[in-house]
Design a protein that fits this description.
The complex is a heterodimer. By secondary structure, chain A is mainly alpha-helical. Helices cover 75% and strands 0% of the residues of chain A. Chain B has two domains: 60 residues; 234 residues, MetI-like (MetI-like fold), CATH 1.10.3720. In chain B, strand 1 and strand 2 form a beta hairpin. Classes of the chains: A mainly alpha, B mainly alpha. Chain B: Keywords: Cell membrane, Membrane, Transmembrane, Transmembrane helix, Transport.
Chain lengths: 275, 315
């Protein structure tokens, strides 16, 4: 009975692991094979990798898309960390009744479905397009602004600030630091791991964001990586080797972040429920 | 006189200092409070502009109709139109099907994996954990395109099923209304099960092992332990994950657009995709699109309340 149970458990977990990993294996072997071989279900590594990459860089504007996505993701992550940590710190360290009420109201915004605010946002950015083209429709600025401040990260920083020793704030004040000084000189260096975890989640969210860039970006040269891949995926005569190469390149940054910083990655996820 | 004078002076000095001190403290507190507001003000303004204000705008838009920017108030017309709109009904039905099948399936699977992986005697534990979590590193668009090819008519899933004799001839998964939905559900489950599993694994580490020892001594089977210890212990985290998954699935967009694009016909279209199509694919009707979008808002609110109630009652 017991050994039967063991066999069942290992079989079950192995099947789950194979199903989880298989699409990755397929992606990785596909980028080394010709499109014909991919359609014939070849699952062994081939010798076509260099050709696939050459065709990719020659026929698809993947470099501009990578640059656009990087600019957007880096600025969004920076703004998110700065604004959300300031607010999370403010709500927790300078606590007051009024702020607690505002905090609760901000949390409600986490339940707002993006589809519900996308049209007014589109119209809002449309109305400022002429006066401020840098943050108007079809600008990277318009992609960044609505995604850079979210209640989730404020909540995340506030939860983590609960573990921040408040004596340090007093010590900083006694040493003559201003309130802003206490934040930048004491809080920020102490909370490095929180910032790392938040940075990973913010970067991944921004890098993978699809719907809002799809709505607000129009010209092909402004395209981000998800828009490019979506476009490749809907082509009628797909070159599988080339498309898979683009997908692997797009997945590399987030996969690397995951493998190099697994602990922070999981800490980032957990931050949302802790406390 | 002089004695009185010195007395007065002695009394006076501390009084004044106390008064000044309290004044300084008061302004200090006042100042500190103000500084506190400085920390949060940018975020509060930004979230108001980019979340709450558009919410109000969308609500107002839901009572307007017209093409592009030429909108006028039409009262409840949009809301009435909803019930007679076959595409909306299809979108609502599909989204409900995804929700009812996918969320429970994923949460049960994730719970199951986490319990198995929590067994201290299990070998290759970190391999299994990483493997099952791996899908979370892919972007929604990227894995959707991969799934589209995997389940294509000449895709590898068809080849596998035929080679092993499970099916007599290829199934055109993405062109069949039933199978297309199955593919969507499988895809979302593949992407998110590991994500939820991590939450349960973390929560299980806080569960006292001696409870299970005691249950074993009392002769409780694994299933009894699962339903009578694990599930009640993890209730808060199960509630959290089911609410986030519900909100996520209600808004599903990336997968639908990139795997089936809503087809065949409208067999897989979701509410979010319909809103997008109404606004940016067909002749733009922002008013009616906003009405449809408010259906998601209403559903999110209702389902969250129900889930909180259900979780609360069992206590």
């Amino acid at each position: 009975m017991n050994s039967l149970k063991r066999i069942f458990i290992y079989t079950f977990l192995s099947v789950a692991a194979i199903v989880s990993i298989f699409p990755f294996l397929w992606m990785l072997t596909s980028i080394t094979n010709k499109s014909v071989d991919v359609t014939q279900g070849r699952l062994l590594p081939g010798t076509h990798l260099i050709e696939n990459l050459k065709t990719l860089f020659a026929t698809v504007d993947i470099v501009p898309a990578l640059i656009n996505s990087s600019i957007i993701a880096i600025i969004t992550t920076f703004l998110t960390l700065l604004l959300a940590s300031l607010a999370g710190y403010g709500f927790e360290i300078h606590r007051s009744k009024g702020k607690d009420i505002i905090f609760t109201i901000l949390l409600l915004s986490m339940m707002i479905p993006f589809a519900a605010i996308m049209i007014p946002l589109y119209r809002m950015f449309g109305s400022i397009s002429e006066t401020a083209p840098l943050i108007g429709i079809d600008s990277l600025g318009a992609v960044i602004l609505p995604t850079a401040t979210t209640a989730f990260f404020i909540f995340f920083f506030r939860q983590n600030t609960k573990m921040f020793p408040k004596d340090l704030v007093e010590a900083g004040r006694i040493d003559g630091l201003s309130e802003i000084g206490v934040f930048f000189r004491i809080y920020v260096p102490t909370m490095k791991t929180t910032y790392a975890a938040a940075a990973i989640i913010a970067f991944m969210n921004s890098w993978n964001n699809y719907l809002w860039p799809l709505v607000i970006l129009q010209s092909p040269e402004k395209r981000t990586i998800p828009l490019l891949i979506s476009n490749l995926g809907s082509s009628y005569s797909p070159d599988y080797g080339v498309i898979m190469s683009a997908i692997v390149i797009a997945t590399l940054p987030t996969a690397l972040v995951f493998f190099l910083m697994q602990k922070h990655f999981v800490a980032g996820m957990m931050g949302s429920v802790k406390g | 006189m002089s004695q009185l004078g010195t007395k007065k002076a002695e009394v006076d000095l501390p009084v004044r200092t106390k008064y000044e001190e309290s004044r300084r403290q008061k302004t200090g507190v006042f100042f500190k409070k103000k500084v506190g507001w400085l920390f949060i003000i940018v975020s509060v303004i930004a979230i108001t502009i980019f979340n709450f204000y558009p919410m109000v705008q969308a609500f107002l838009l839901s009572f307007q109709s017209g093409m592009g920017a030429n909108l006028e108030y039409v009262g409840l017309d949009n809301w009435r139109r909803l019930f007679g709109d076959p595409t909306f009904i299809a979108a609502l039905t599909n989204t409900t099907i995804y929700l009812l099948i996918q969320v429970p399936l994923m949460i049960v699977l994730a719970l199951f994996f986490s319990v198995l992986l929590n067994d201290p005697k299990l070998k290759f534990k970190s391999f299994f954990r990483i493997a099952i979590f791996l899908p979370c590193v892919t972007s929604l668009v990227a894995y959707s395109v991969v799934f589209k090819y995997l389940f294509g008519i000449d895709g590898i899933v068809n080849q596998f099923l035929i080679n092993f004799g499970f099916i007599p001839q290829t199934i055109n998964f993405l062109a069949d209304p039933f199978w297309a939905k199955v593919v969507i559900i499988l895809a979302i489950t593949w992407r998110w099960t590991g994500y939820n599993m991590i939450f349960y694994l973390a929560a299980l580490q806080n569960v006292d092992k001696s409870i299970y020892e005691a249950a074993k001594i009392d002769g409780a089977s694994s299933f009894q332990q699962f339903f009578q210890i694990t599930v009640p212990m993890l209730k808060p985290i199960i509630l959290f994950t089911s609410i986030t998954s519900t909100i996520g699935t209600l808004q599903i967009f990336d997968e639908i657009v990139n795997i089936t694009n809503g087809g065949p016909g409208n067999a897989t279209i979701s509410i979010s995709q319909y809103i997008y199509n109404l606004s940016f694919e067909y002749t733009p009707d922002f008013g009616y699109a906003s009405t449809v979008s408010y259906v998601i808002v209403i559903l999110v609110v209702i389902l969250s309340i129900i889930q909180f109630r259900v979780a609360g009652e069992k206590k």
